[in-house]
Amino acid sequence: MIKILLLYAGSAVAIWASALMQRYPDYRYVFSEFDIDPTYIENKDFESYAYSHEKALLHFYRKALQEGAPFLSMIRGELMEEGLSDLFLYLSIIESGLSAEAVSSKKAVGLWQFMPKTARAYDLEVCAGIDQRCDPRISTRAAIRHLLRLHQRFGKWYLAVLAYNCGEGRLARAIAKAHSDLPEVLLDPQAHYLPAETRDYLKKILLVAMIGEQENIDFPLSEEGYVEVEVPKGAQIAHIADAISIPRARLLKMNPQFKQGRIPQNDTAYTLRIPEESLAAYFLKYEAKHEHEQSPERTFTKTSHLLSHTVVLGETLSSIAQKYHSSSEAIKHLNRLPDDSLEVGALLVIPVTQEAFDAYLNE
C-alpha cells in the first residue's frame, strides 16, 4: 500500500512539473537570466513550492504592480543601463512589494530593503531628515552596485540573489559546507545549508518572475508622468506643493525620502519628483520666485509663460531658442544645464513672452 502511494505521489509530481512548464513557457529564459539550469524546474522541492504558492504570489505580484506603477519603468531602465537583466525587478517586488516606504521587522527600508549599514556602504544618506533608502532612483542604483559586487564575488546571478538575502559570509560558509554551489544542493530542505527564509527567497523570485513574464506586461523604457527637479536646500515640500497646486500629501508620497517634509539644509544637491504636468508651474511659481529672492539682481528677458519642448536629433540650444524667440542662456539656466550639450529625447522648459506663447498656440 505504501509503495502504491509513493508511486502515485511521484506521478502527481511529474504531472505537476509538466503542467508548470506548459503554463510558464518562458521558464527557460527566466532560469537562464539567473544562471540556473532550466532542468531545475523539475526539482521536486521547487515544484512543491510552486504548487503551494502560485496563487498567492500571483495576487501579490498584481498588487505590487499597482503599488509601484510610478517606479517600474525607472527600475527597468536603470537595470538595463548597467547591463543587468530587467528580471531583477522581481527581486524588488519580493523585497518590498514595490513600496518605496516599506519597512521590515528588521528595520530594512525601501524598494530594495536596505539595512542602515549596507545603505551607508553605498553612500546613501540615512538620518532623521532624509532616508535615501526611500528614494526610488538612488536606492535602485545602490542595489545595482550591490548586486554587481555580489556577482563579482560569487560568479553566478542566483548566488548573488542568495547573498543579497542572507549575507555574503553566510552564503560562503554554506557553499564550503555543501562542497557545491548548485541550487538543488544549497536549497536542499533536508541539509539546511541555508536558512529556510533564504531557500524560499530564491524560489519565490523565480516563481514570481515566471508569473510576471507570463502576464506579459510591456513597460515603456522611459518613465512617464513624473520629472525630477533640483530643489534649493531647506525648501519646504508643503510650500512647493502649494505653489504647483497639488495636495501636499501627494507630493510627500512621491518623495518619501524627505522624512521631515523639507529639503536638508546642507550643500548636497537634492532632486524632487513632481508630476510632469506641474513642471511649468514649478518653474514659474516656485523656482522663479526663489531665484528672485536669492539673486534679485539676476535678470533675463521678461517672460510670463513656459512651453515644453522635447529635444530631437540635430537640435542645438541656439536653434531651440531661436524657434521660440527665447534665449539660450535663459533656457540653460531654467533647465539647470551644465553646458550647451543636449540629449535627444530630453524634456526642456522654454521661457517665452506672452506674444510668443500666443503665436505658438495659434500655429
| Helix fraction bin | 40-55%
Termini separation: 85 Å
Strand content: 5-15%
What's the number of helices? Answer: 17
Write down the Rg.
25 Å
**What is the count of distinct domains?**
3
Number of strands: 4
Largest sheet: 2 strands, antiparallel
- What structural category arises from helix and sheet content? mainly alpha
Arithmetic mean of pLDDT: 85
Order of helices and strands: HHHHHHHHHHHEHHEHEHHEH
Uncertain spans: 1-11, 292-303
| Approximate shape | elongated
> Strand order within the widest sheet?
1-2
How is this fold's topology laid out?
Elements lengths: L1 H22 L3 H7 L10 H24 L4 H10 L7 H8 L19 H6 L14 H19 L2 H10 L1 H11 L4 H4 L9 H20 L10 E6 L5 H7 L4 H7 L15 E6 L3 H16 L10 E6 L6 H7 L4 H7 L12 E6 L1 H8 L2
Antiparallel strand pairs: 1-2, 3-4
Helix pairs in contact: 1-3, 3-11, 4-7, 5-11, 7-8, 8-9, 8-11, 12-13
Attribute tags:
4 strands; two-stranded antiparallel sheet; Membrane-bound Lytic Murein Transglycosylase D, Chain A; 53% helix; disordered N terminus; mainly alpha
Report on this model:
Helices cover 53% and strands 7% of the residues. The protein is mainly alpha-helical and 363 residues long. The chain has helices spanning 2-23, 27-33, 44-67, 72-81, 89-96, 116-121, 136-154, 157-166, 168-178, 183-186, 196-215, 237-243, 248-254, 279-294, 317-323, 328-334, 354-361, and strands at residues 226-231, 270-275, 305-310, 347-352. α4 runs parallel beside α7 and α5 crosses α11 (196-215). The strands form 2 sheets. The protein has a two-stranded antiparallel sheet. A two-stranded antiparallel sheet has the order 3-4. The termini are far apart. It has 3 domains: 2-85 and 150-215, no CATH class; 225-296, Membrane-bound Lytic Murein Transglycosylase D, Chain A (Roll); 299-363, Roll (Membrane-bound Lytic Murein Transglycosylase D, Chain A), CATH 3.10.350. Mean pLDDT is 85; it is low at 1-11 and 292-303.
